Amino acid sequence: MIVVSIPDWGVTAFAANRDRSQIAREIDAFNAANKEIALAHKAQWIDITHFTREAATDPALVASDGLHPSGKDYARWAAAIAPLVKR
Predict the structure, then answer these.
(1) What percent of the chain lies above the pLDDT cut of 90?
(2) CA–CA distance, 77 with 4 (Å, rounded to integer)
(3) Which residues contact 51 (CB under 8 A, 6 or more apart)?
(4) Which of 24, 38, 67, 71 could form a disulfide with 45, with the two C-beta atoms 3.0–4.6 Å apart?
(5) Among 67, 5, 61, 2, which residue's Cα sits nearest to residue 32?
(6) 6: which residues sit within 8 A by CB, 6+ positions away?
(7) So what's the pLDDT on residue 3?
(8) How many angstroms separate the Cα of 46 from the Cα of each of 14, 34, 36, 79?
(9) Alpha-carbon span 80 to 87, nearest angstrom
(10) Is the pLDDT of residue 87 over 90?
(11) How far apart are CA 55 and CA 78, in angstroms?
(12) Contact at 8 Å (CB) between 68 and 76?
């Protein structure tokens, strides 16, 4: 089993007029718990959140809906996850 961290939607247009730093803190707290639980159950865990945070400066990483990751970002996730799948 592979557990993937959740993306940071706080860097997208969807988060306009929201506290982006609070969103990031809450996502980091969730991901920390997520990782601890996954590893305790012998699952593989991977952090893709850092990829999604790059969308703050690279709009090509966000789909046209202004919220979801683009194909370009999903491709980066897949490349990072692939070695875990091969293992």
Answers:
(1) 99
(2) 9
(3) 7, 61, 73, 76, 77, 80
(4) 38
(5) 5
(6) 27, 30, 31, 34, 49
(7) 97
(8) 25, 10, 12, 12
(9) 13
(10) no
(11) 17
(12) no
> What's the first-to-final CA gap in the chain, in angstroms?
11
**Three-state SS string across 24-72, please?**
HHHHHHHHHHHHHHHHHCCCEEECCHHHHHHHHCCHHHECCCCCCECHH
- List, for residues 34-45, the tens digit of each pLDDT value: 999 999 999 999
> What span, in angstroms and rounded, lies between the C-alpha atoms of 19 and 85?
36
What the block records as the tokens of 28 is 């980091």
Alpha-carbon span 63 to 80, nearest angstrom: 20
For 57-76, how does the pLDDT look when each residue is reduced to its tens digit (9 = 90+)? 999 999 999 999 999 999 99
Which CATH superfamily hosts domain 2-86? SGNH hydrolase (3.40.50.1110)
